[in-house]
Amino acid sequence: MTSALTGGVFVTTSGTDELADLRQLADDIGVRSFDERIGRRGLPDDFDSVAWKNLQDAGLTRLTSDPESGGGPTESAVVLRALARHAVTVPLAETDVLAAWLAAKAGLAVPDRGPLTIAIGNTGARTVSGVPYAGAAGAVVVALRDGAALAVAITDPATVETGHNLGGEPRDTIAVPGDGLVTLDGAAEELARRGAWVRCIQALGALDAAVEFSVAHTREREQFGRPLSAFQAVQHTLASMAGEVERARAATELAVAAVAVHGFDSAQADYAVTVAKVVLGRVVPTVVTAAHQLHGAIGVTIEHRLWLATMRARSWIDEFGDTAWHARKLGRMALTAGDPWDFVVGAV
């Protein structure tokens, strides 16, 4: 893969060194955002316009939806994970992987620059709740489900009510437009799969941060004249956390690879994303609980960086289908699989 920041666009093709460069660029933006917002977090957490501008100037906001970006799902996953690891409060996943894609599929125009968001509801609804970053978006792509079909429209972000998820990310309520709806048959499943895919990647980034914070805390904090990390029980907890996160990483990387090779609309992606959602749904509560136990009471305060990682991870695993929903789906896949062994090893 080659990579270069050319004319404000980070152009990439596949390759280990270039992905490392991209990861470093995204990490740099994330670290800068985190450091600049220390002590300024709240509920809800404000949209980080500075970080968004840095991402946009680097050409990282439309990696999958703009063919001229030179990027794709693999590059998008690298950036999404890095931003989640540093708790950057921007709607990158909503803009690129969800809203811009769905608007293009419906033949509807959205702004080329600036953040977008997506509002997913049911046909006949007059409002849609849980809309990410509605107050910051230049346009909202509304997707109303009717079975496997979607009625899609573009609307201004007329916020009816503001809100937030557990990790402080804006989750608002908007009014549904009365006209301009375009029907897309069979698009509902891919939209849900795309949403589950990005939330798995983001949750993995947040878990990475939770483990890093826990390792640093137990090394720095002393009890009975020794660092916490010197106690065997703490060492076992840290090792268990690391093992669980690696299990989540393996499942998530399978989902990224399936999408990169076969596309979001493939059976391979459907299988891999479902597996990842189930695995993350089981790993997140375990790692979150252990991280807060190691931090003690300090870890639950809004002033501490841990809650940004753990609470966002807890929120993300329940979006676009919770663990139980995906587990039932995986079970149905297993029952209808031709060869059980092929299903177990992912040869679908």
TrEMBL record:
Residues 195-314 form the Acyl-CoA dehydrogenase/oxidase C-terminal domain. It comes from the Bacteria. The keyword Disulfide bond does not apply. SUPFAM superfamilies: Acyl-CoA dehydrogenase C-terminal domain-like. GO terms for molecular function: acyl-CoA dehydrogenase activity; flavin adenine dinucleotide binding. InterPro entries: Acyl-CoA_dehydrogenase (IPR050741), AcylCo_DH-like_C (IPR036250), AcylCo_DH/oxidase_C (IPR009075), AcylCoA_DH/ox_N_sf (IPR037069). GO terms for cellular component: cytoplasm. Keywords: FAD, Flavoprotein, Oxidoreductase. One of its GO terms (biological process) is fatty acid beta-oxidation using acyl-CoA dehydrogenase. PANTHER family: MEDIUM-CHAIN SPECIFIC ACYL-COA DEHYDROGENASE, MITOCHONDRIAL-RELATED. This is Acyl-CoA dehydrogenase. It comes from Mycolicibacterium aichiense.
